[in-house]
Amino acid sequence: FNANGECLGMAFQSLSSDSAENIGYVIPTVVIMHFLNDLLKHGSYTGFPTIGVETQTMENPHLREAFGMSPKQKGLLVNRIAPTSA
Questions:
Q1: What is the pTM of this model?
Q2: How far apart are the C-alpha atoms of 61 and 82, rounded to whole Å?
């Protein structure tokens, strides 16, 4: 809760006996509301749309050098494109 008493997220922890991680997560209210609205609208959770691309930043100077980039260049490296992406 914030100073105005508004809920900012919900605490969650997996308690499965075979995979107890002792790690807690906070799920933002935006995600909770998306889930609930999706459930009410479609009768099931359809998820968030994704672009289907995995990337990494080119922050590492050795990585930039390996790809022939100058020290001042910036960008993203596309690591994977999901086979089902459009």
A1: 0.45
A2: 27
